[in-house]
C-alpha cells in the first residue's frame, strides 16, 4: 500500500484539530498540503467541535457541506436551526442553546477538499506513530508521511471499570464524551420516556448533563465522591449555591460517595435507575507518542509555541503541558478555550518558523465557563490563595448574582462571577490579568464594582 504524503498532518478531530485547521487556512495553506486524520466519522468532540472551515456566517457554508449543531451537553441530537430557536432534545421537548461565540459545526467532509484543499481522512485509527521517520500508520495498514505534525488527540473518558467498579459493564451504563455516546443516551431516553437517571460525577459533564435532563422533566439523582461539586474549581461557598439551586430544580444530589455497582452506592444505599450516565473525568490520549517525546503532568511537554521535544512535532489542547507564563510554572489545561488558542498559537508558530519570523510566546489567562438552567458563570485566573465571596448567594434569589475573588500575596489572582453582564465579565478577565493589590474586606464591600473600575 503506497504511502500518502502531506506537508502538514493534524491527528485528531475535535476542537483543537478544527481550530488548527482554520488557522492553517488563514495562513494560506495550499491545496493538498494539509490532512486531518481522525478515528471519528465526523470532526467533533464532546466539548463542542469545530470544522476545518469554521464559518461565522451561517449562510456562507461551502456548497454540499452538511450542517449540524451537535453539543452532547445541551442538544444531543438536533439539526442546525435559525438563531435563538429551540433545539430538540427528545421529540417536542426542547432546550435553548446559547452559543458562547460562533456556531460550532460538524463536517462530514462534503465540499471541504474542493473548497480549500484540506484532506479529511476520517474513520481512520492511527495505531503507530514513528516520529523519527515522520510516519503514521493506521489500523488498516495505511502509511502517512508528514513534514510537520500537530498532535490534537484530546482526551478519552474514564470508565467505572478503570476504578475496579463491579457491574461497570451493565447495558444501562453510558458515558458522554463523543457524539456516538450522546446518540446512545438519547435513544435510551426515547425508549423509556419515564426513565429515572443516575448521573455519576459532579464536574462539568455531571452538572451540565443533569441540567438538560431536568429541563426535560427527567428524574435525576446526581452522585459524586467529593464533599461538594466541581471541587477542582469551586470553593465550598460557591458550590453551596449550585447544589442548592439544583436541589430547587428537583435534583437529588448525593455527595461523598461513589457508585460501586451500577446504582449501588459505597455507603450501602441503592438508587433506582433505568439509565446511569457516568462523567468522572478523562485522561489525555498520549500513548501513541510515549517514549518519543518528553512528558510532564500526564501530557506532552511543549514550549511556549507548542513545539515538543521531537523535531517538527507540535501538541495542542488537552494533551499539551505548556509554560504558564503568568504563574511561572507549567500546566496542562482541559478546556475548550485553551484548545482553541493553543491550536492557533502552534500553527502561527509553524508558519513563523518557515518564514524566519518570530511570534510572541503563549501568555494564557486561564478561562473557564459553564451554562446550565438559566445560570451562566465565568472564571478567570488562578484559584489559589485566600478567598472572599460577594453578592447574593441565596439559591432561591430571583437574581442569583454573586462572585468570588482569590487573593495571593496581597494581589487578586482569580475571579469568578455568576450571571454577569458582558461588561462585567470583561472586567473580570482584566482584573485577573492585571492582578491589582486588594484586601479581603475591600473586595467583600465592593464586589464586582472593584473589577469594573480597574
Fold and architecture overview:
It is an enzyme of class 1 (oxidoreductase). With 454 residues, the chain is α/β, with parallel strands linked by helices. The chain folds into 3 domains: 4-59 and 104-154 and 284-355, FAD/NAD(P)-binding domain (3-Layer(bba) Sandwich); 160-280, FAD/NAD(P)-binding domain (3-Layer(bba) Sandwich); 374-453, Enolase-like, domain 1. It contains 9 helices and 27 strands. The strands form 7 sheets. Strands 1, 2, 5, 6, 7, 8 and 20 form a 7-stranded mixed beta sheet that branches. Helix 1 (15-26) packs parallel to helix 6. It starts with a strand and ends with a helix.
Topology:
Blueprint: E1 4-11, H1 15-26, E2 34-37, E3 86-90, E4 93-96, H2 112-116, E5 119-121, E6 126-130, E7 135-138, E8 143-151, E9 155-157, E10 173-175, H3 179-191, E11 196-200, H4 204-215, E12 219-224, H5 236-248, E13 252-255, E14 259-261, E15 264-265, E16 275-278, E17 282-284, E18 295-296, E19 299-301, E20 313-315, E21 320-324, E22 329-332, H6 336-354, E23 367-372, E24 375-381, E25 386-391, E26 402-408, E27 411-418, H7 422-434, H8 440-446, H9 448-452
Parallel strand pairs: 1-2, 1-8, 2-5, 8-20, 10-16, 11-12, 11-16, 12-13, 19-21
Antiparallel strand pairs: 3-4, 6-7, 7-8, 9-17, 14-15, 18-19, 21-22, 23-24, 24-27, 25-26, 26-27
Amino acid at each position: 500500500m503506497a504511502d500518502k504524503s502531506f506537508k502538514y498532518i493534524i491527528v485528531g478531530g475535535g476542537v483543537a484539530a478544527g481550530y488548527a485547521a482554520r488557522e492553517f487556512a488563514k495562513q494560506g495553506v495550499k491545496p493538498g498540503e494539509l490532512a486531518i486524520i481522525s478515528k471519528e466519522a465526523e470532526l467533533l468532540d464532546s466539548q463542542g467541535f469545530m470544522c476545518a472551515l469554521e464559518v461565522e456566517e451561517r449562510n456562507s457554508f461551502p456548497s454540499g457541506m452538511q450542517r449540524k449543531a451537535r453539543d452532547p451537553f445541551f442538544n444531543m441530537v438536533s439539526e442546525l436551526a435559525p438563531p435563538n430557536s429551540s433545539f430538540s432534545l427528545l421529540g417536542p421537548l426542547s432546550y435553548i442553546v446559547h452559543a458562547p461565540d460562533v456556531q460550532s459545526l460538524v463536517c462530514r467532509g462534503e465540499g471541504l477538499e474542493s473548497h480549500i484543499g484540506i484532506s479529511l481522512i476520517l474513520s481512520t485509527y492511527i495505531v503507530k506513530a514513528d516520529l523519527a521517520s515522520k510516519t503514521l500508520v493506521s489500523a488498516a495498514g495505511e502509511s502517512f508521511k508528514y513534514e510537520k505534525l500537530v498532535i490534537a488527540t484530546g482526551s478519552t473518558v474514564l470508565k467505572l471499570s478503570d476504578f475496579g467498579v463491579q457491574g461497570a459493564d451493565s447495558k444501562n451504563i453510558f458515558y458522554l464524551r463523543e457524539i456516538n455516546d450522546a446518540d446512545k443516551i438519547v435513544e435510551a431516553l426515547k425508549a423509556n420516556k419515564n426513565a429515572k437517571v443516575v448521573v455519576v460525577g459532579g464536574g462539568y459533564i455531571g452538572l451540565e448533563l443533569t441540567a438538560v435532563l431536568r429541563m426535560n422533566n427527567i428524574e435525576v439523582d446526581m452522585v459524586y465522591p467529593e464533599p461538594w461539586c466541581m471541587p477542582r474549581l469551586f470553593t465550598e461557598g460557591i458550590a453551596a449555591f449550585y447544589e442548592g439551586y439544583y436541589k430547587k430544580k428537583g435534583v437529588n444530589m448525593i455527595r461523598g460517595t461513589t457508585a460501586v455497582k451500577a446504582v449501588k452506592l459505597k455507603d450501602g444505599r441503592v438508587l433506582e435507575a433505568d439509565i446511569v450516565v457516568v462523567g468522572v473525568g478523562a485522561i489525555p490520549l498520549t500513548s501513541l507518542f510515549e517514549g518519543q517525546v518528553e512528558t510532564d503532568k500526564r501530557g506532552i511537554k511543549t514550549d511556549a509555541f507548542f513545539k515538543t521535544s521531537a523535531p517538527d512535532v507540535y501538541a495542542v489542547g488537552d494533551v499539551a503541558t505548556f509554560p504558564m507564563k503568568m504563574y511561572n510554572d507549567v500546566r496542562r489545561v482541559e478546556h475548550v478555550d485553551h484548545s482553541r488558542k493553543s491550536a492557533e498559537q502552534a500553527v502561527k508558530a509553524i508558519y513563523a518558523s518557515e518564514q524566519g519570523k518570530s511570534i510572541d510566546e503563549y501568555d494564557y489567562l486561564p478561562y473557564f465557563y459553564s451554562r446550565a438552567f438559566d445560570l451562566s458563570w465565568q472564571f478567570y485566573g488562578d484559584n489559589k490563595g485566600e478567598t472572599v465571596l460577594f453578592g447574593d448567594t441565596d439559591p432561591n434569589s430571583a437574581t442569583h448574582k454573586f462572585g468570588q475573588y482569590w487573593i495571593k500575596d496581597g494581589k487578586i489572582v482569580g475571579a469568578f462571577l455568576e450571571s454577569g453582564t458582558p461588561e462585567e465579565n470583561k472586567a473580570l478577565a482584566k482584573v485577573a490579568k492585571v492582578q491589582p493589590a486588594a484586601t479581603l474586606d475591600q473586595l467583600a464591600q465592593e464586589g464586582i464594582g472593584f473589577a469594573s473600575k480597574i
